[in-house]
Amino acid sequence: CEDLLFSYKGILYPTTVCSPEVFKALECFEARREDVILAGYPKSGTNWAGQILTDLVTTAAENTEDETNSLNDEELEEFPYLEIGDTEKYQRMEKLSSRRVILTHLFPHNLPESIFKNKAKILVLVRNPKDVATSFYHFTNDMSPLPSYATWDDFFTAFMTGKMPWGSYFDYICEWSKHVDEENVMTITYEELKENRALGVKKIAEFFGLLLTEEELQAVTDRSGFQAMKENAQKTHGAFGNILFRKGSVSDWKNLFTEDQNQEMDKTFEECLAKTKLGAKIKYELYCK
Ligand code: A3P
């Protein structure tokens, strides 16, 4: 399984979708202040929040005459994950209109410096690690480009040690924690979006300064429901859509974790994250409910 991974600045990535050459090219990527960036560890609901952002940006653009705000066809065709593509991707992105919606699973230290230097706004999306592990296990076994694991126990060990595509969840949250108080950074949890999607959509629009009417915000909320996105998955994500929109629920981990694994994760969470800002948010909002 390790043949399918390579290391870049200390983090493992899948060779089938990322490459050292693309990462090298990415270092020169020029972020813009207007870029809309979504950062999340894999399986945190990135495609969900990504659709909300694209929909908000597109709708807001229709309300303004400023064409630099709109997403053109080429832009919508460009695969939205920053680190996935070919070495010419960043040249193509250079030519795109101003408001680019960019998704990424990268650790902050693997992002191009220009994102922080040019003060692009970043939405950091987090999800309960137990549900992330559960979702990742199903996904990685269904997706041929990613390593698969013979058993859930094997996957759990890899997840806890961080020897995984896109690295350790715990290190990821710990590193992003150092950025949560920056004025260009907003955090949102999968669980809060699940509990009150309309409020989440509104907060996201406000943070990025996207002007939409109440009706438009409601329409974005309606289009981002799990069922609506699942039904549209073939169109938006092709064959990959069936794998991606799996259950969309909270606490599915209870169907996979043994009591020992549950305790081991609680212990690791406590040791690695409880004292970090993002860890405290996850603990307060997700664990203690
Ligand atoms: P599950 O595997 O638990 O169902 P990512 O986009 O980061 O790969 O995350 C995928 C997870 O987000 C999957 O979780 C998927 O079902 C869930 N998801 C996708 N769209 C969603 C939506 N509209 N509402 C709730 N969850 C959604």
Characterization of this structure:
- With 289 residues, the chain is α/β, with parallel strands linked by helices.
- It contains 16 helices and six strands.
- The strands form two sheets. The protein has a four-stranded parallel beta sheet with strand order 4-3-5-6. It has a two-stranded antiparallel ribbon with strand order 1-2.
- The model has no long low-confidence stretch (mean pLDDT 91).
- Bound molecules: adenosine-3'-5'-diphosphate.
- Residues 40, 42-48, 131, 135, 138, 194, 224-226, 229, 244-248, 252 line the site of adenosine-3'-5'-diphosphate (A3P).
- GO terms for molecular function: sulfotransferase activity.
- It is an enzyme of class 2 (transferase).
- Keywords: Transferase.
- Its EC number is 2.8.2.-.
* Percent in helix: 40-55%
* Tally of strands: 6
Tell me the Rg in angstroms.
Answer: 18 Å
Structural class by secondary-structure content = alpha/beta
Kindly report the spatial arrangement of strands forming the biggest sheet. 4-3-5-6
Strand content: 5-15%
Distance between the termini: 37 Å
| Largest beta-sheet characterization | 4 strands, parallel
- Shape, principal axes of CA atoms: globular
* Mean pLDDT figure: 91
Spell out which ligands are present. Answer: adenosine-3'-5'-diphosphate
Helices, by number, come to 16
Q: Provide the low-confidence segments as ranges.
A: none
**Strand/helix succession:** EEHEHHHEHEHHHEHHHHHHHH
